Automatic annotation (TrEMBL):
Alphabetized Pfam families for the sequence: HDC
Top-level taxon of origin: Bacteria
Subunit structure: The proenzyme is a hexamer of identical pi chains; each pi chain monomer is cleaved to form a small (or beta) chain and a large (or alpha) chain by non-hydrolytic self-catalysis.
Keywords, comma-separated and alphabetical: Decarboxylase, Lyase, Pyruvate, Zymogen
Stated name of the protein: Histidine decarboxylase proenzyme
InterPro entries: His_de-COase_proenz, Pyr-dep_his-deCO2ase_N, Pyr-dep_his/arg-deCO2ase, Pyr-dep_his/arg-deCO2ase_sand
Catalytic reaction(s) noted: L-histidine + H(+) = histamine + CO2
Required co-factors: pyruvate
C-alpha cells in the first residue's frame, strides 16, 4: 500500500525520500518508478537536503589549450569533486528553502554532533524580529561528506548524469585573489514554516607587498578569516530581517559556515556553496534498519552500522582559508 506523505512529519518525509537506485542518490523529482525493496512504499515526494561548501584552483599553465571559459569549467568541476563528491551531475538551480516535504541530513535524520554554544548572537532589533543564535555548520558539511563519500572513497553520491536541483552559488577568480563561499541554514521555530538556506560567494582581491624585508600578501589569511566572520554577521542580519517578514516568528537559530581559497598569480580559483536536494540511495539504510530508525539515530551510529571503511576526518573548519600564502623572509 502507498505510504501517504504527511507534510511536516519528518518520519513521513524520510519514508518518501528513498530513491530507485541501490548505490546512488538521485535528484529530487527524478522518476522513482516501482522503487523495489527495501522501501517499496516510498513515493519520492519527500527529499533530503544536504549541505556542501568547496573550493578549488587550477594552474593556468597546466595546459596551453585552456582559455578563460575552460579554466572556469575545470576549477568549478574541482569544487564539485572536492570533499563531498557531487561531480558529474546536471545541477539545476532552485531558490533556497527546505520545506515541509524536506528533511536536512545531519539535523533531522542521522543527527550530527551539533555545537551547543553559538559563535555569536544577533540581538532582536525591536522591529518584531527575534534574537538569532548562529552556530558553526561544519558538522552538517561533515554529514554530507559521510553520506556521499569522496572521489577516492566513494559511498553513495548522486548518480553521474542525474539532474539534481540545488540551492547554489559559485564564483571564479583569477589570482592573485581569494574566492570565498558561504552557506547557512536558518531553522524555522514553527514546524509549519520552511527552513531557509542562504548561499553567497565573492572575491577578496589580493596584492603582494613587502614591509621591512618581509614579503606577504594583503589581505593575509587571518585577515580573510575576519572578513568572513563579518560577512557571517551580515548574512545573519539578513536572515533576521527575512524572519520578521515571515509573520515575525520564523527563525531564532541558524547554522553557518564559510571558506576561502587563495589563487596565486597564474592560478584560477573557484568557490561553491550548494545544497543538493536528493532522494537517498536504497543502501543508505543499514541492514534491518527502517527509515524511522534513520530519523531516530545519530550520524555516528548510522555510519558504524553502514560502513566498515573510515573516511579521513573532515578537513575544513569554519572560516578556513585554503592555500593562503605564508610570510616569507
Amino acid at each position: 500500500m502507498p505510504n501517504n506523505p504527511t507534510p511536516g512529519d519528518i518520519k513521513s518525509v524520510v519514508r518518501n525520500a528513498i530513491g530507485p537506485m541501490e548505490e546512488y542518490a538521485m535528484g529530487y523529482l527524478n522518476p522513482v518508478g516501482t522503487n523495489p525493496a527495501p522501501t517499496p512504499s516510498s513515493q519520492g515526494t519527500g527529499y533530503i537536503a544536504t549541505m556542501k561548501l568547496s573550493v578549488g584552483t587550477v594552474k593556468i599553465d597546466e595546459a596551453d589549450i585552456l582559455d578563460e571559459g575552460t579554466e572556469n569549467i575545470v576549477s568549478y568541476d574541482r569544487c564539485e569533486a572536492t570533499d563531498a563528491n557531487i561531480s558529474q551531475i546536471n545541477m539545476g538551480t532552485a531558490s533556497s528553502f527546505c520545506g515541509l516535504n524536506g528533511a536536512l541530513w545531519g539535523y533531522h535524520l542521522a543527527e550530527a554532533e551539533l555545537p551547543k554554544t553559538p559563535v555569536f548572537t544577533v540581538p532582536a532589533n525591536g522591529g518584531g524580529s527575534k534574537s538569532l543564535d548562529v552556530y558553526d555548520a561544519t558538522p552538517l558539511l561533515d554529514a554530507t561528506y559521510r553520506l556521499f563519500g569522496t572521489v577516492d572513497v566513494p559511498r553513495h553520491p548522486p548518480l553521474p548524469g542525474a539532474h539534481v536541483i540545488c540551492a547554489n552559488k559559485s564564483v571564479t577568480v583569477r589570482g592573485p585573489s581569494y574566492a570565498w563561499a558561504f552557506i547557512a541554514i536558518a531553522i524555522a521555530d514553527d514546524p509549519t514554516e520552511s527552513n531557509l538556506f542562504i548561499e553567497d560567494c565573492g572575491e577578496f582581491p589580493a596584492r603582494p607587498y613587502e614591509t621591512n624585508g618581509t614579503k606577504t600578501v594583503f589581505p593575509t589569511g587571518d585577515q580573510v578569516k575576519d572578513l568572513l566572520l563579518k560577512h557571517e554577521w551580515a548574512v545573519a542580519k539578513s536572515v533576521q530581517m527575512c524572519g520578521a517578514d515571515y509573520r515575525k516568528k520564523a527563525y531564532s537559530k541558524m547554522f553557518a559556515v564559510s571558506r576561502a581559497v587563495y589563487a596565486a598569480p597564474g592560478e584560477v580559483g573557484s568557490a561553491l556553496a550548494c545544497a543538493p536536494y536528493v532522494l537517498l540511495a536504497q543502501n543508505d539504510l543499514p541492514t534491518k534498519w527502517t527509515t524511522d530508525k534513520l530519523v531516530d539515530s545519530d550520524l555516528a551510529t548510522w555510519q558504524s552500522a553502514r560502513w566498515s571503511d573510515k573516511l579521513p576526518d573532515y578537513p575544513y573548519p569554519d572560516r578556513s582559508v585554503v592555500g593562503a600564502p605564508k610570510e616569507q623572509p
